[in-house]
């Protein structure tokens, strides 16, 4: 540069080569402002308390973060599973439970982070970790604590109930954590403890059991299902109107559910759109009246529910001259068979289609295991449509006393007395039977996830359980031989779509199989 400056001289200097005096480049800087950590003191001032544990479990409350941060997350260099959309986005039945408002308009904080974990295995059903939240649960509300696992799995880990705070004497929601996931990394000194490693994240979701208006009536009930031009469902339970509709119908069908299910979940499996695939399918198949039979599926025996089904059909006006078609999912198939074969329901029913029904029983001999696995598969995105949210509520609200209510586990057990009784009957000649038996051709990696879930949910003898389930085609709940085997009854048709136990009514494969089975 100096050589190119103007200067006086006695001789002429050669002109230097042209040099670039300045260069420029574009630099993009992305500044990410994380949600500010909340201290234990801040949590306590907000009325949130993690109570001392009775055993040797120890942890430091790192603070709260936002569910929104977990839409995609990285743990130890691996991309872990994000929360399902139906838990992240506000919905009529479930939404993140805001515990604190983030600063500067950021997301509300609803994920409790524990750090410096010691003896996590000491947190059990008998010795849970209790967390008090400054809210009061209303009737029909539930708080679901979920684990965000380093292995990419999500599953329920406890339940909640109202309790009285010993200091303030105010009613609070007391969340009981019955198990904790493995921390997201071994302790690696103070530096790692302050970061994402060696932490446990607990997501708090709020579930409202009944916002649809469909569950305000005591079970069991029969209802007419209709849909308006907005796709909204309506359940009509008035007996006189049901009788009139049945009398006018040429081809009525009755839909019933299985364990912890609701028929409304079949008609609107996708809460993001008003379309109702099953409703459309039944209309296209020529059914001019759609009825739903909803019942208590865990504290009433299958035999008692079958008797209730028959009485509701009789009261609705079904008889030998006007018989119904039954479309029954899972345990509902056993209920329907008992009504037809043990209670002379063949005078009321002309066609039975069972969907995923374990006619020979199931290895899921405990209701809690069955529901926990179904919920966890849905949360971990291993199924196409989620298990009904009522199963979540049931699991958490009744976890500590469901054993006294369980009236169906023994009936569902392989070779149970009820299974043997049903399989000893010969089906009536005037009733057509069809079985839809899902076949999940899961890749090896998904099989591994199911095994992991069994471990994390502490389901005993899972090695034998998984070997049984994966020893032949199955739908994650019932084996092929169980769905197809009805004892002396030989189904007129057996259809095996590529879907799992909870996606029969939402996938094209499942709906096509049901349409085929419903043909006369």
Explain what you see:
- The chain is α+β, with helices and mostly antiparallel strands and 520 residues long.
- 26% of the residues lie in helices and 22% in strands.
- It has 16 helices and 21 strands.
- It has helices spanning 40-45, 85-88, 189-194, 239-248, 263-267, 277-284, 302-316, 331-341, 367-379, 389-397, 409-412, 417-423, 444-456, 462-470, 480-484, 508-517, and strands at 49-50, 58-66, 73-75, 78-80, 94-96, 100-101, 108-118, 129-133, 141-148, 154-156, 158-164, 171-177, 199-208, 221-227, 233-236, 252-256, 289-294, 324-329, 349-355, 432-436, 493-495.
- The strands form four sheets. Strands 15-14-17-16-18-19-20-21 form an eight-stranded mixed sheet, sandwiched between helices. Strands 2, 5, 6, 7, 9, 10 and 13 form a seven-stranded antiparallel sheet that branches. The protein has a four-stranded antiparallel sheet with strand order 1-8-12-11.
- Strand 18 (324-329), helix 8 and strand 19 (349-355) form a beta-alpha-beta unit.
- The longest helix is centred in the middle third of the chain and has 15 residues, at 302-316.
- The radius of gyration is 29 Å and the shape is elongated.
- The relative contact order is 0.10.
- Residues 1-13, 32-37, 72-81, 186-197, 210-217 and 397-402 have low confidence and may be disordered.
């Amino acid at each position: 540069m100096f050589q190119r400056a103007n200067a006086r001289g006695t001789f002429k200097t050669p002109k230097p080569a042209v040099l670039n005096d300045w260069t420029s480049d574009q630099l993009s800087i992305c500044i990410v402002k994380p949600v500010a950590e909340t201290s234990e003191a801040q949590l306590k001032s907000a009325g949130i308390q993690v109570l001392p544990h009775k055993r040797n479990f120890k942890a430091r409350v790192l603070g709260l973060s936002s569910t929104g941060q977990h839409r995609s997350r990285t743990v130890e260099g691996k991309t872990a599973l994000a929360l399902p959309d139906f838990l992240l986005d506000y919905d009529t039945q479930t939404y993140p439970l805001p515990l604190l408002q983030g600063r500067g308009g950021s997301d509300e904080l609803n994920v409790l982070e524990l750090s410096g974990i010691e003896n996590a295995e000491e947190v059990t059903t008998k010795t849970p970790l209790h967390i008090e939240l400054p809210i009061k649960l209303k009737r029909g509300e539930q708080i679901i604590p979920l684990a965000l696992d380093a292995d990419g799995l999500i599953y329920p880990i406890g339940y909640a109930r109202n309790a009285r705070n010993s200091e303030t004497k105010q009613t609070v929601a007391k969340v009981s954590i019955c198990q904790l996931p493995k921390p997201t990394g071994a302790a690696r000194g103070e530096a790692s403890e302050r970061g994402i490693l060696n932490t446990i994240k607990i997501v708090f979701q709020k579930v409202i059991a009944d916002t649809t208006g469909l569950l305000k009536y005591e079970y069991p009930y029969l209802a007419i299902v209709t849909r308006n031009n907005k796709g909204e469902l309506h359940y009509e339970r008035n007996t006189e109107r049901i009788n009139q509709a049945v009398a006018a119908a040429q081809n009525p069908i009755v839909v019933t559910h299985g364990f912890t299910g609701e028929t409304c979940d079949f008609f609107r499996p996708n809460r993001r759109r008003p379309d109702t695939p099953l409703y459309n399918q039944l209309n296209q198949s020529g059914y001019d009246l759609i009825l739903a039979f909803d019942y208590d599926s865990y504290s009433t025996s299958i035999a008692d529910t079958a008797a209730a089904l028959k009485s509701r059909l009789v009261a609705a006006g079904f008889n030998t001259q006007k018989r119904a078609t039954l479309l029954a999912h899972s345990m509902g198939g056993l209920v329907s068979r008992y009504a037809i074969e043990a209670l002379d329901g063949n005078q009321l029913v002309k066609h039975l289609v069972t969907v995923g029904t374990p006619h020979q029983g199931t290895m899921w001999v405990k209701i809690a295991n069955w529901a926990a696995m179904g919920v966890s598969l849905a949360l971990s995105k291993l199924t196409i449509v989620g298990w009904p949210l009522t199963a979540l509520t049931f699991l958490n609200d009744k976890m500590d006393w469901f054993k006294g209510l369980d009236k169906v586990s023994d009936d569902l057990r392989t070779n149970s007395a009820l299974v043997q009784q049903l399989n000893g009957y010969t089906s009536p000649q005037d009733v057509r039977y069809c079985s839809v038996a899902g076949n999940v051709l899961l890749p090896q990696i998904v099989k591994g996830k199911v095994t992991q879930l069994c471990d994390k949910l502490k389901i005993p003898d899972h090695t034998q359980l998984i070997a049984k389930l994966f020893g032949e085609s199955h739908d994650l709940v019932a084996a092929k031989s169980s769905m197809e085997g009805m004892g002396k009854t030989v189904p007129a048709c057996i259809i095996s779509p590529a879907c799992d136990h909870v996606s029969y009514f939402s996938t094209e494969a499942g709906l096509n199989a049901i349409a085929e089975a419903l043909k006369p």
